[in-house]
Design goal:
- It is globular, with a radius of gyration of 19 Å.
- By secondary structure, the protein is of the alpha/beta class.
- Strand 11, helix 9 and strand 12 form a beta-alpha-beta unit.
- It has 13 helices and twelve strands.
- Helices cover 40% and strands 14% of the residues.
């Protein structure tokens, strides 16, 4: 991420201690060349195939990000994945051992690659994982996708033995299927289940291991039903509304920065990159997060303009 493109390039300092590390990251990323995210017709399965895969990290601060890659999400997956380098650069300043795993979720009934999962990684390796992912842009005819299949994998095939502050962020818009199907589990993970499993039970088990949030794009006409199901699974307060695909990663970083005690610093980072409108969109989402007061983000709330804009966004 080149700060020269920011709204206020001199408004935020990553710190002199970070300079050599960030320079090295840039050099390694430049050697890899530009991302080929959209120039493919299938995922790079050697990096994101969940079959037979088990994830492991000794990071105390692992973060798992899953993005719905179906048609209703439109261009949102690309906008989210484009900002993964910014997310890594920012959060690794706060926790040097921070590692990230990336997933794409589809529909196991209709899609060819309904579950894609990368290992935990850091630095330019994350570019490889982003390149390997393939949001199909398909999905089923209803208002459900296979989020529950992702939940099963994460509950049974991930080990984070040293985790102190683990996050799981799901970025999507629809419901999940009520039951986890043995045939789908067998196909995507190789596990043999004797019977169907209740999906909400699996989400509740996951919530004992991770701080889970659904960062949610609206689905007009079905929102009440969708919100009700997710509320039962992870808690209503953990469902964060999204208003702009360009600001999803900022919302994610704000949630994590708060728990890590770095919310004010994140505010300086955000206000250096975004204008008042961009800041207001992020604040409108974060205002509804549990235990998070946007007043703490002092550098983004100068006067009453920004707060008023974010209030209007919510009311609109």
């Amino acid at each position: 991420e080149d700060v020269k493109t920011w709204k206020k390039p001199k408004g935020y300092d990553y710190g002199s201690a970070e300079a050599p590390y960030l320079k090295k990251l840039k050099e390694e990323a430049d050697e890899k060349g530009p991302r080929s995210y959209l120039v493919k017709s299938k995922p790079k399965l050697e990096l994101v195939n969940p079959l037979g895969k088990n994830l492991y990290t000794e990071s105390e601060n692992p973060v798992i990000i899953a993005v719905d890659g179906t048609g209703s999400m439109q261009t949102w997956p690309k906008e989210i994945h484009d900002r993964i380098p910014l997310m890594y650069q920012t959060l690794s300043k706060y926790k040097s051992d921070f590692e990230l795993s990336l997933s794409v979720i589809g529909d196991a009934i209709s899609d060819s690659w309904a579950l894609q999962v990368s290992d935990f990684g850091k630095g330019p390796t994350l570019d490889d994982y982003v390149n390997a992912l393939y949001p199909e842009g398909a999905g089923g005819p209803g208002i459900r996708e296979s989020y529950e299949l992702f939940a099963y994998f994460m509950n049974n095939h991930v080990q984070t033995p040293k985790a102190v502050s683990p996050f799981m962020l799901i970025m999507g818009d629809e419901m999940f299927y009520d039951k986890i199907e043995p045939a789908q589990v067998k196909h995507y993970t190789g596990d043999g289940l004797q019977e169907k499993i209740d999906s909400i039970d699996v989400w509740k088990q996951l919530a004992q291991k991770y701080d889970i949030y659904l960062l949610r794009k609206a689905y007009p006409g079905h929102d009440d039903k969708i919100l009700d199901q997710w509320g039962k699974a992870i808690g209503e307060q953990k469902i964060i509304p999204l208003y702009d695909p360009l600001r999803v990663v900022d919302v994610a970083m704000g949630l994590i920065a708060k728990k890590w005690g770095k919310y004010s610093d994140f505010g300086k980072n955000l206000s250096s990159r975004q204008d008042e409108k961009g800041i207001a969109v992020v604040e409108a989402s974060l205002r509804l997060a549990p235990g998070l007061d946007v007043k703490d983000m002092k550098s983004t709330t100068k006067g009453s303009k920004t707060s008023k804009k974010s209030k209007n966004l919510l009311e609109g």
